[in-house]
């Protein structure tokens, strides 16, 4: 754990003196003082009282703000603007990092799947986490499903009518407009993932004029949200799911709008049309077609009206 996160954790439960902090964390008093100054510079209002340092207020949206009170051990690297949080997360992954989240207010070269572009104006939540899970590469799609489930739950909390379209787009249930895109990248051997980067782009506090056609934002639906709390819910929700495939699949079924729908899926092997029946590990969609049951692993999915 970074000393910044350790200090934030210690201060979360009330005032602590500099010497007590230094002793608890096994660092010098000067190191504590320096970290407190860094936190002040990033926008924390920290009072020095008789009983020690006390956090009076937390900045809106930055790395330490998301780390403060976060109930899962991630380091958060925040950027006001960056080309792509996934690109930065890949660099960190290649350098051996684990459990880091790259978070940004704006991306200037956000990426979708298949080299498509992702519009990422200021006010969104763009995050990519780096993990080194004990996982076979074949199982990695489960992590993407877990990210979709956690993000959908976090969106439903403030009342956004969000649902998951297979495999991992999050749409407004009533209109089908897109709210969130997810892009997972990984590197590994045949039997073992070396790292996974899972990127989530949420149209949060942005105007829909700044988004492509067919997209909507949280602002447009329910007004602005607290992006700090939202990011924390996503990270905590993801972490509580990610090692439990049954919970991921149940959560996905509960959040999905694709099941029970007539769909057309473009796969590398051709088009599959039929009724989406279920999801199976690690993310296969089970489709009832005129020629029997077909299972698809990947592809672009379109919801069709019932015929
Ligand atoms: C996705 O791709 O939906 C995955 C997007 C992942 C973005 C995140 S942001 C954090 C991290 N860092 C990155 O650089 N990327 C990840 P795909 O299914 O290929 O959808 C892309 C298509 O969605 C585009 O071709 C547009 O039609 C549309 N689109 C682009 N920007 C959008 C937006 N902000 N909201 C809704 N739709 C958008």
How would you summarize the topology of this molecule?
Layout: H1 3-12, H2 18-25, H3 29-41, E1 45-49, E2 52-57, H4 63-67, E3 75-82, H5 85-94, E4 100-107, E5 110-111, E6 117-118, E7 125-131, H6 141-156, E8 162-165, E9 169-172, E10 178-188, E11 193-202, H7 218-222, H8 227-241, H9 245-255, E12 262-267, E13 270-280, E14 284-289, E15 292-296, E16 300-304
Parallel strand pairs: 3-4
Antiparallel strand pairs: 1-2, 4-7, 5-6, 7-11, 8-9, 9-10, 10-11, 12-13, 12-16, 13-14, 14-15
Biotinyl-5-AMP is lined by residues 84-86, 107, 110-114, 116, 118-120, 126, 128, 169, 178, 181-183, 199-201, 203, 211-212, 215.
Structural features, described:
- By secondary structure, the protein is α+β, with helices and mostly antiparallel strands.
- The chain has three domains: 3-57, Orthogonal Bundle (Arc Repressor Mutant, subunit A); 63-255, Bira Bifunctional Protein, Domain 2 (BirA Bifunctional Protein, domain 2); 262-304, SH3 type barrels (Roll).
- The chain is built from nine helices and 16 strands.
- The chain has a seven-stranded mixed β-sheet with strand order 3-4-7-11-10-9-8, sandwiched between helices. A five-stranded antiparallel β-sheet has the order 15-14-13-12-16.
- The longest helix has 16 residues, at 141-156.
- The N and C termini lie far apart (55 Å).
- Residues 84-86, 107, 110-114, 116, 118-120, 126, 128, 169, 178, 181-183, 199-201, 203, 211-212, 215 line the site of biotinyl-5-AMP.
- Biotinyl-5-AMP (BT5) binds next to helix 5, strand 5, strand 7, strand 10 and strand 11.
């Amino acid at each position: 754990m970074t000393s910044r996160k350790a200090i934030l954790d210690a201060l979360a439960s009330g005032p602590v003196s500099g010497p007590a902090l230094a002793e608890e964390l096994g660092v010098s008093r000067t190191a504590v003082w320096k970290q407190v100054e860094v936190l002040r510079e990033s926008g924390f209002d920290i009072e020095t009282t008789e009983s020690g340092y006390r956090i009076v207020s937390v900045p809106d949206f930055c790395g330490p703000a998301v780390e403060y009170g976060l109930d899962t051990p991630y380091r958060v690297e925040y950027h006001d603007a960056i080309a792509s949080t996934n690109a930065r997360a890949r660099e960190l992954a290649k350098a051996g990092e684990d459990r880091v989240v790259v978070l940004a207010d704006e991306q200037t070269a956000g990426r979708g799947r298949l080299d498509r572009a992702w519009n990422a104006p200021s006010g969104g939540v763009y995050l990519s986490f780096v993990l080194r899970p004990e996982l076979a590469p074949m199982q990695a799609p489960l992590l993407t499903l877990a990210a979709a489930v956690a993000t959908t739950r976090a969106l439903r909390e403030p009342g956004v009518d969000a649902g998951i379209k297979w495999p991992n787009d999050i749409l407004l249930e009533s209109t089908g407009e897109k709210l969130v895109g997810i892009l997972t990248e990984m590197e590994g051997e045949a039997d073992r993932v070396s790292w996974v980067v899972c990127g989530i782009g949420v149209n949060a506090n942005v105007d829909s004029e700044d988004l492509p056609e067919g997209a909507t934002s949280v602002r447009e639906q329910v007004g602005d949200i607290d992006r700090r709390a939202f990011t924390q819910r996503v990270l905590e929700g993801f972490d509580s799911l990610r090692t439990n495939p049954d919970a991921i699949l149940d959560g996905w079924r509960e959040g999905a709008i694709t099941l029970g729908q007539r769909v057309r899926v473009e796969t590398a092997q051709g088009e599959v049309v039929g009724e989406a029946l279920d999801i199976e590990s690690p993310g296969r969609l089970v489709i009832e077609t005129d020629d029997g049951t077909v299972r698809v692993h990947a592809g672009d999915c379109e919801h069709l009206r019932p015929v």
